[in-house]
Amino acid sequence: MLLGYARVSTTDQDTALQLAALKQADATAIWEEHRSGVKQRPALEDLLATLAPGDTLVVYKVDRLARSLTDLLRIAQRIEDSGASLRSLTEPIETGTPAGRMIFQLLGVFAEFERSVIRERCEAGRTAAKARGTRFGARRKIDYEAVIRMRNSGETMVAIARHMEVSHAAISHILRRVREGLTPVHKPAVLGDGRPC
Hints:
This protein is an alpha/beta fold. It is built from 7 helices and 4 strands.
């Protein structure tokens, strides 16, 4: 029996192309999923539990099954343990044959290699951004009252920004909000002698 599986990564994507191809391949039943490849996939788990000897799990592409080589090999082992096979409609994969199993594993290796290269590039980009002074993570919370006190005591915006470890633009934004009465400070916030911020 041919059992189809279709998956998209987000709810706003569409499985129409995959479903049409699976129906064209005469899949008897189709399991559809709208989840990331790295999260729990109940439809896939249900399908894997349904497989019986002689069944074929049909997918549009192998990457619809898994996002990592480890996951791909785990799923392939479950399919094999159930006596079923895997078939991809767009790749030369039919795990019922030795050549198909080899190609399946090679595709997984190449996919894992590609993700490793992408991770390395992302990390190199983050390192370069940090070297340029870019900050990552949650925004620093700024004490509005301290900014007002420092400004009223004669500190420049540059000095306040350096002291608070934020940009000059952030301090300028805070002082503009104070001037416009849009500050989170609970008591009235007035800039001392009325100098321009």
